[in-house]
Each structure stands twice: as structure tokens, then as C-alpha cells.
């Protein structure tokens, strides 16, 4: 379709993994590809929104109307998100942020010890969604993701409240074909008003349409 229902809206998204350096050649990271967040960025842009995508290390890129701000670490992602959240009407937190980072990262490649093991001290990374959520203005609409290994309804709702999000997208890891490195996803959407919508397994592009439609109904576009 050619509907331009998001014309005039600013959308900020985080997507992809973060890489937390151990030394110049090693990092702590995860298998996120950024595909779901990029599909969302594309769908908002297609429908007329002004879209900024804060993207962790990923080989994928969105369509060219989307402004990409590449980042490496969680701390960088937070800084760039803080700088850009002011003008956002809608924010989507789709990044798979590393929960921890090495306390020290070496400027030189670490050498293997002759014998024995290496201990890494890890510190907690900032929660980007929760940090920005705590400053959310009443006219801003924030959406997060929850990836749970069980049904996860209660956990998803708890995260929505704790991060002050308006809505949350639950991916159950129990569903075959859903989540990291798959082309497909199966989601349930919850909002603060008690709304619940469960969808079938579909392509990430089709899931992005469902999520963008869900938000359009909530913000009454
Ligand atoms: O707490 P949990 O990691 O399960 O929450 C997932 C949601 O929080 C996602 O929307 C994710 O992008 C966001 N998040 C974040 N910063 C973190 C951890 C998670 O923005 N450090």
C-alpha cells in the first residue's frame, strides 16, 4: 500500500547486538542480526515517518530514507539514543544489548598465558529502554521487546511497567522459527491498557507491519 499514515512522525529505533570490547580483536556479544529492527525501520519509513535507526554491529542496512547511526557498545548506544530521543514521537527498543561489559578493555591484544585460565571482570551495562523510559513525556509512545524462554506473559508485562513502556512485543523462544537469525517471527503484543494481540508465525517484514499497525491504532493515526 502507499498509505502515509506516519507522515510528520519521528521514530527512533535501536536494533542489532552490541559488542563490548575485551581487547582490540575480541568482544562479548550475541547473535542478534538486527533484522527485526531494520524491518520495523523500513515499514515506518515506507509509511512516511522520519526514521532514525541506532544500529549495533550488523551487516544489514535499511532502505536509504532511514538515517542510520552506527554504534558498537551499549554505552555508545545509550549516548546516541539520549541525544536523539527529544524529537521522537515513537521509540522502539529492538536492540539485543549485552547485559555486561568487561570492566577493563585492553588497548593491546591480550596474550595467552603460558598456563592456566583468564578471569574477566564484568560490570552491568545501562538499560537503555529503562533509562529513556524514565524520562518519557506523555506524548511519546515507547515500545520494547521481551524474549522469553517460557510463555512469558507476566514477565513481558513486568518489563513493560519497569521500563515505563507503552507496549511490549513478546517473542517466545519456545516457538519454532521465532527469534534470532530466523527469517520469521511469532509475537504477542501487550499494551498498558490491557490490550493483547497474538499473531501467527510470519516473515519479519509481516511482523513489522503488524507492530506498526498496532501502534497506529494506539496513537490514533
Ligand atoms: O530486560 P530485557 O533485556 O529482557 O528487556 C528487553 C528490552 O529492553 C528490549 O526492548 C531491549 O531493547 C531493551 N534493553 C535495553 N537496554 C538494555 C537491556 C535491554 O534497551 N541494557
Task: Give an overview of the whole structure.
- The chain is an alpha/beta fold.
- The protein contains five helices and 14 strands.
- The chain has helices at residues 35-46, 74-84, 128-133, 153-162, 204-218; strands at residues 10-15, 20-23, 26-28, 50-55, 67-70, 90-93, 100-102, 122-124, 141-148, 167-172, 184-185, 187-191, 196-198, 202-203.
- An eight-stranded mixed beta sheet has the order 5-4-1-6-9-10-12-13, sandwiched between helices. It has a two-stranded antiparallel ribbon with strand order 2-3. Strands 7-8 form a two-stranded antiparallel ribbon.
- Helix 1 crosses helix 5 (204-218).
- The longest helix is centred in the last third of the chain and has 15 residues, at 204-218.
- 39% of the residues are buried.
- The model has no long low-confidence stretch (mean pLDDT 94).
- Bound molecules: cytidine-5'-monophosphate.
- Residues 14, 74, 93-95, 97, 125, 127-129, 144-146, 159 line the site of cytidine-5'-monophosphate (C5P).
Q: Top keywords for this entry?
A:
27% strand, two-stranded antiparallel ribbon, binds cytidine-5'-monophosphate, decarboxylase, alpha/beta, 5 helices, FMN binding, flavoprotein, lyase
The beta-strand count equals 14
Helix and strand content put the structural class at alpha/beta
Low-pLDDT residue spans: none
What string, H for helix and E for strand, traces the elements in order? EEEHEEHEEEHEHEEEEEH
Distance between the termini: 16 Å
Q: What is the approximate shape?
A: globular
Amount of helix: 10-25%
Largest sheet: 8 strands, mixed
Strand content: 25-35%
Ligands (ions, cofactors included): cytidine-5'-monophosphate
Q: Give me the number of helical elements.
A: 5
User: Under the CATH scheme, which class?
Assistant: Alpha Beta
The strands making up the biggest β-sheet line up spatially as 5-4-1-6-9-10-12-13
> What's the overall average pLDDT, rounded?
94
What's the gyration radius in Å? Answer: 18 Å
Number of domains: 1
Amino acid at each position: 500500500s502507499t498509505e502515509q499514515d506516519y507522515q510528520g512522525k519521528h521514530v527512533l529505533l535501536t536494533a542489532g547486538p552490541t559488542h563490548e570490547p575485551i581487547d582490540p580483536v575480541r568482544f562479548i556479544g550475541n547473535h542478534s542480526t538486527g533484522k527485526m529492527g531494520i524491518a520495523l525501520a523500513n515499514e515506518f519509513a515506507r509509511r512516511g515517518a522520519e526514521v532514525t535507526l541506532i544500529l549495533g554491529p550488523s551487516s544489514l542496512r535499511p532502505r536509504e530514507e532511514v538515517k542510520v547511526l552506527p554504534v558498537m557498545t551499549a554505552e555508545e548506544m545509550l549516548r546516541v539514543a539520549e541525544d536523539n530521543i527529544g524529537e521522537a514521537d515513537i521509540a522502539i527498543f529492538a536492540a539485543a544489548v549485552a547485559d555486561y561489559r568487561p570492566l577493563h578493555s585492553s588497548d593491546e591484544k591480550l596474550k595467552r598465558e603460558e598456563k592456566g585460565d583468564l578471569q574477566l571482570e564484568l560490570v552491568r551495562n545501562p538499560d537503555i529502554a529503562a533509562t529513556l523510559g524514565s524520562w518519557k513525556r506523555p506524548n511519546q509512545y515507547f515500545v520494547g521487546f521481551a524474549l522469553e524462554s517460557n510463555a512469558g506473559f507476566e514477565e513481558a508485562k513486568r518489563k513493560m511497567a519497569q521500563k515505563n513502556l507503552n507496549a511490549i512485543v513478546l517473542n517466545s523462544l519456545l516457538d519454532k522459527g521465532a527469534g534470532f537469525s530466523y527469517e520469521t517471527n511469532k509475537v504477542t503484543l501487550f499494551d498498558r491498557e490491557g490490550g493483547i494481540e497474538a499473531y501467527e508465525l510470519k516473515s519479519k517484514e509481516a511482523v513489522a507491519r503488524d507492530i506498526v499497525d498496532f501502534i497506529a491504532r494506539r496513537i490514533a493515526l
